[in-house]
Amino acid sequence: MRVIAAAALAGALTLAHAAGSVRVAEAWIEEGPPDVPVLAGYATIHNPTAQTARVLNVSSPRAERIEIHRSEITENTVTMTRVDELPIPPGGEIRFTPAGYHLMIYGVAQPPAAGEKLPVEFEFDGARKVTVEAIVRRSEGSAGAVEGSGQVEDAP
Ligand SMILES: [Cu+2]
Known about the structure:
This protein is mainly beta. The protein has one helix at residues 2-17; strands spanning 23-30, 38-47, 53-59, 65-74, 77-83, 86-88, 92-95, 101-106, 117-124, 128-137, 150-151. The chain contains one helix and eleven strands; from the N terminus they run αβββββββββββ.
């Protein structure tokens, strides 16, 4: 009995020490030509918790819908597949890149110009939501934006 109690206590301590909550940083959207209704977006998602965090949905009041895609480069072709659920490993992060995970943003009513910001909401499992202001910029000059970050304030 004593052993079980100790194990339970250790478990509780581990939970209590899971530092911070899921965070979305460096969110940005690539400025597109005015006649193209689809935009690409990028972010880095950090998961400092002790459990896998899953991104279940991404949305913006400025867009009809947002999908997570993954590009795969095989020989001479690039294929993009839609990702329904993106798991971020415990203590890990996923950085979106043009050659990997990225956001496809469909149906933006007015094409945003460089410097504009679009609110983008990331919904994680456990009803956790993170809203960031993704800055629109041209793809050249890829200096990491310190803007466009956010984190869960309180998970219910
Ligand atoms: Cu895509």
